[in-house]
Design goal:
This protein is mostly helical and about 425 residues long. It contains 19 helices and five strands. A three-stranded antiparallel sheet has the order 4-1-5. The chain has a two-stranded antiparallel ribbon with strand order 2-3.
């Protein structure tokens, strides 16, 4: 592992990518502590910070923002508007034919979809910023932003504008990591946000119950290898290539396999399901005085309703995203053109049906495994109210392990391109 990291820093291109990624994540964490202009003094924020760090819907949004929401920082909106925009655009591709056609047009089509995602992110961020302003100024908290010395409507415009610009900067930072750094920028920002809350949660957990802290850490040590095992698991479909004459040479005749991952969608179902479940909380901030809406947002964000919906949405998005990234018909067509076939299965549509059948069967256990890992720690947290259990919850640990594995795999593949053996022999 250390030798692989040393090899990565010997290559100028990889060294620059790693440093860009680290630098952007550090810059992002700085923005999470940079207060919005006109923020009230520390004493006035105690009630809000206590609420945002508790166990309600806002607390979960605060976790995914890396604590930026509780501090009312420039990056208080976090990455959620961007994720929500991506979910909407991807689901619309299955409904709107023109978007589906764009997605199949290669790089030019993806650029247009990315542009639409940016526009939608700005719109959602503006709505969220206005909602948070209304929540901050609600009767429950009554925070005073008059320190700017401007009329109230000017102060409101400044606060909403700063939050909106912060969300746009986060979107830009994530895209820069994806394009010029290592790994997926959106996932790495979420990873950094979750990791940022662990030290504080660990200290608080030790102060409350050292025994429960040790048990939680032991559970994490046991669960992480299982997650890695499932994430790297594959169903290998045997493929045989027929012999054929190419010029004066006989090509083909070898046997290989078509690898299908147990969890083809990776951590995307977890991230998408979380964004959907916490969307009511984002809407509820517009109506802080409407009790039933607050009750509904909290019920969807935590508790038995959240557990049921989490399982359903994770399984749904696992199938949905797998269908988006893996096309059995296209794979079967490529096999037929290259002279390959699955033993005992006719080429063409029969091969596509066989691959789809296998994919459907292998996706279900992977999705159920993710759902169980995501829900069980949340149930334990409900009964123990342990802060470390919240930070190391199922959703958090799946995202952290999945993002770490994807980032290492991305770096390892680039290392092998430069004739190095990578992280793992």
């Amino acid at each position: 592992m250390l030798k692989g990291i040393a090899n990565a820093f010997r290559v100028k291109e990889l060294r620059e990518k790693i440093l860009i990624t680290i630098g952007i994540l550090v810059l992002y964490r700085f923005g999470a502590y940079l207060p919005v202009p006109g923020i009230p003094v520390k004493g006035m924020l105690d009630a809000w910070q206590s609420y945002a760090s508790g166990s309600g819907a806002i607390a979960v949004l605060n976790l995914f923002s890396g604590g930026a929401l509780s501090r009312m920082s420039v990056f208080a909106l976090g990455i959620m508007p961007y994720i929500t925009a991506q979910i909407i655009l991807q689901m619309m591709q299955a409904v709107i034919p023109s978007l589906s056609t764009l997605a199949q047009e290669g790089e030019s089509g993806q650029r247009k979809i990315t542009q639409y995602t940016r526009y939608l992110t700005v719109a959602l961020a503006l709505i969220n910023a206005i909602g948070y302003l209304l929540l901050f100024k609600s009767a429950q908290y009554g925070l005073d932003f008059s320190s700017l010395g401007f009329p109230e409507f000017v102060e409101d415009i400044i606060i909403v504008g700063v939050l909106l610009v912060g969300a746009i900067i986060i979107m830009w930072l994530g895209e820069v990591i994806t394009q010029r750094g290592i790994g997926n920028g959106m996932s790495l920002i979420i990873f950094a946000n979750i990791m940022a809350g662990i030290p504080t949660a660990l200290i608080s957990s030790v102060q409350n119950s050292a025994v429960l802290t040790i048990v939680t850490i032991a559970m994490v040590v046991v669960i992480v290898p299982i997650i890695v095992y499932i994430e790297r698991g594959q169903r290998r479909i045997p493929v045989q290539y027929a012999k054929r004459m190419v010029g004066r040479r006989i090509m083909g005749g070898q046997s290989t396999y078509l690898p299908i991952k147990v969890n083809t969608a990776g951590v995307v179902p977890i991230i998408f399901a979380s964004a959907i479940l916490y969307f009511p909380a984002q809407i509820a901030v517009f109506f802080p005085s409407v009790d039933w809406m607050q009750i509904f947002a909290n019920a969807v964000s935590s508790g038995w309703l959240n557990w049921i919906l989490s399982v359903v949405l994770i399984v749904f998005f696992a199938y949905f995203y797998t269908a988006m990234v893996f096309n059995p018909e296209e794979t079967a067509d490529q096999l037929r053109k290259s002279g390959g076939f699955i033993p005992g299965v006719r080429p063409g549509q029969a091969t596509a049906d066989y691959i789809k059948h296998t994919l459907d069967h292998i996706t279900l256990p992977g999705a159920l495994f993710m759902a169980v890992i995501a829900v069980v720690p949340s149930i334990v947290f409900t009964f123990t109210n342990n802060s470390l259990m919240q930070s190391f919850g199922g959703t958090s640990i799946l995202i952290m392990v999945g993002v770490a594995m994807d980032t290492i795999a991305s770096l390892e593949s680039q290392l092998k391109m430069h004739n190095y053996e990578g992280f793992f022999k």
